[in-house]
Amino acid sequence: MDQTSILPLLGSSGTFLPVKGHTTMASVTFDKATRIYPGATKPSVNQLDIEIADGEFLVLVGPSGCGKSTSLRMLAGLEDVNAGAIRIGDRDVTHLPPKDRDIAMVFQNYALYPHMTVADNMGFALKIAGVNKSEIRAKVEEAAKILDLTEYLDRKPKALSGGQRQRVAMGRAIVREPQVFLMDEPLSNLDAKLRVSTRTQIAGLQRRLGITTVYVTHDQTEALTMGDRVAVLKDGLLQQVDTPRNMYDRPANLFVAGFIGSPAMNLIEVPITEGGVKFGNSIVPVSRDALATAAANGDTTVVVGVRPEHFDVSGATSKDGVAVTVNVVEELGSDGFVYGSTRVGGEDKDIVIRVGGREIPAKGSTLHVVPRAGELHVFSKSTEQRISE
Ligand SMILES: Nc1ncnc2c1ncn2[C@@H]1O[C@H](COP(=O)(O)OP(=O)(O)OP(=O)(O)O)[C@@H](O)[C@H]1O
Ligand SMILES: [Mg+2]
């Protein structure tokens, strides 16, 4: 981190002590990094390949057990790497002990020392490192200012709210001025509302500090809202790493398509027909290339993905697309989600459709829906990979 990137942090005293003045770039590289736990039959993390730029906020996301924490712990040096390598900047850290990696980790359970004050908790790592008292105090006070914890410095953790404790845990990481922050589900102990405000604070703070950050969550909304880029893992295998926008607009396979987005993308198997796919009474155009790829895979059907906001909706008298029976309506004011059932491609299917806030249909009524041309995601039935542009 250079001097300029830390300037906005300086309080009036100007003593945030950017003393370390890192000269190396703190990019992070997972180079086919693999972790096989003793006795396991398959890798928990399998040839993970990601390059994280200096200053980037990368979010690792995926369902429980997909290998997120294992990946982070390999980077922290808390877990052996069985094959491949991990680099921070130009340094190969694959076999370095955690203390030599210049990282700071924030865990889900903040693990604050209950008998120490907030200030002592925040300064503890520096004390262990032999930093002198006045320097520790200065760093702690600056971090407290950034985190809005100044008035709590003399309290014990038990006298703090969950969100405040979480900030103390952040403070403990910040005072160390590491090259890389690692965070493993740091918000999961907070209630829903606090989680939303704290995630904004963390993302904002990371941007101001400019410290390369790898952040783990199982929550795709958190991933999309916080990350510069998002890496989706499943069963130890990287599925896609991309910006939130691209992840949403161009999911690489069926898994990512279903995982990213809330409510989830509708994934519907439909027959291929001349120039497109047959969606009930309508034919929705699909690119020639996509159809050729499907044919080359020997498929007569494809799975189309339609986001809830990408249907054209008409009333019961319409003949377009498929008829949907409205089962449940979620009204959100500005818009609403219709949870319905339909029959498409010879199968009964649940379907979610977003409608305008003033166009909410009655429960039990019938709608006709057809995917908007150009908004269709097409996946191979046999390979599950994206085949549309
Ligand atoms: N110490 C261990 N010994 C053996 N297997 C382990 C160990 N730790 C994790 N695993 C296995 O490795 C896989 C990945 O675990 P990991 O903790 O990385 O998942 P995760 O993505 O962090 O999940 P969660 O969202 O539940 O925290 C799981 O199948 C898990 O059972
Ligand atoms: Mg985990």
TrEMBL record:
Domain of life: Bacteria
Family annotation (SMART domains): AAA
PROSITE patterns: ABC_TRANSPORTER_1, ABC_TRANSPORTER_2
CDD domains: ABC_MalK_N (cd03301)
One GO location term (cellular component): ATP-binding cassette (ABC) transporter complex, substrate-binding subunit-containing
GO biological process: carbohydrate transport
Pfam families on file: ABC_tran, OB_MalK
ABC transporter domain mapped to chain residues: 28-260
Keyword ATP-binding recorded: yes
Entry's Gene Ontology molecular function annotations: ABC-type transporter activity; ATP binding; ATP hydrolysis activity
Keywords noted in UniProt: ATP-binding, Nucleotide-binding, Transport
Keyword Chaperone: no
Sections of the chain in a coiled coil: none
NCBIfam families: PRK11650.1
Name the record gives this protein: ABC transporter ATP-binding protein
The organism of origin for this protein: Streptomyces filamentosus (Streptomyces roseosporus)
